Automatic annotation (TrEMBL):
Domain of life the protein comes from: Bacteria
Domain Metallo-beta-lactamase: residue ranges: 36-249
Keyword Hydrolase found: yes
Lineage: Bacteria, Thermotogati, Deinococcota, Deinococci, Deinococcales
Protein name as it appears in the record: MBL fold hydrolase
SMART domains per the UniProt record, alphabetical: Lactamase_B
The entry's keywords: Hydrolase
Amino acid sequence: MTRHSDPPATATPAPRLTPVTGTLHALQVPIPYPMGYVTVLIDTASPVTLIDTALDTPEARQAIEDGLHSLGLHWESIERVIVTHHHPDHYGLAGLIEERSGATVHMLDVDIARGEQYWHRWEEWLPGHSRHFLDHGVPEASMADHDQEARRSRARVRPATRVTPLHAGDTVRLAGLDWEVLWLPGHADGHLGLWQAGERLLIAADAILPRISPNVGLYAYSRPDPLGDYLSTLARIEALDPARAVVGHYGPVMDGVAERARELLAHHAERLDLLRASLAATPMHAYDLSFVMFPRDLSVSSRRFAVAETLAHAEYLRLHGEVGRRWDGRSWVYFR
C-alpha cells in the first residue's frame, strides 16, 4: 500500500525586520501601491514606540502584528505613535493602535493643522479638491472616479481621536538616544523627520527616497509653494550629510544620502528648465503641461498626481516671477 504524506504546512513568511540602532528596528509592511512596502519603525525600549503605521488593511495589520510578536510585543504594548506625515500609508492605523493600546499619537504641529484635518473633514473638502483639478485643465471625464478613489483611501485610514503636537526643534527620546524633531516640508506640508546627530542618522520617511523622486504636488489644501519647500528640505538634508537615512519606501535604510539629495535637486532643476522652454513656446494649462513632464501612459489617478506635481513646478516659476498665468474662462493657463 502506498503511503501518502500530508502536504507540508504553508510557512508564514518571517517579518521583514532590519535592526537600525540599539532597540530600534525597521519593519517592511506591505501596501497595495507600486512601492510595495512602507517602513514602520518599532522601538522596543520604553516608551514602546511605532514611527508610522501603514494603511488599515488586513495585510498591514498582520505584518505589524507579526513584527511586534517577533520582538516580544503585542498591539497593547505600544505606548507611543509618531507619524511622519498624514498620507494614508503612514497614518492609516494610528486610530486603531490608539484604540487598542491607549498609545499617544504625535505629529508635527504643521501637519495637525493642515493635512491631518483632511481625514476628519475629507467629505467637506472633497468638492474643493475636484474643483482644483478642473480649474487646471483636467477633463471632467477624468474626474469621474475621483470621489470613489477618495472614499477608498478614506476607508483605509483610522485617524486618531487625539493627536499631540510635536514642534521643530523638540527633542524625542528613542532607543536610548536624543533625536531632534525636524520640519521637512515638500512631499507633505507637515512632514516630520528625526535627526540623531551623534550617529548621523536621519529618520527621513518620504522626504528623500532611493530609486524614485518623492511626489511633490500642489493640491487644494497645500502650502502655496511645495516645490520651493522641497528644494529647501533637500538642501537641508545635503547640509546635514547623514551617514544613513531610514526611508519610507525602497529601503528601509539608505546611505549616500547627501549625494541623493544633490541628484534630486538636479532632477527638479531639469524639470523647471523643461517647463520654461515649453511655456516659452506654447501657453498651456497644467493638465496639458503634465504630458510634457510625464509623457508616458498613466492611469487616470496617476495622471492627477502628475498634474499636481506639474502644478508645483509651474507655481514655483510663477511665484519667482518667471511665468505668468491667466484665466481663459475654464481653466488657468500658464505662459512665458
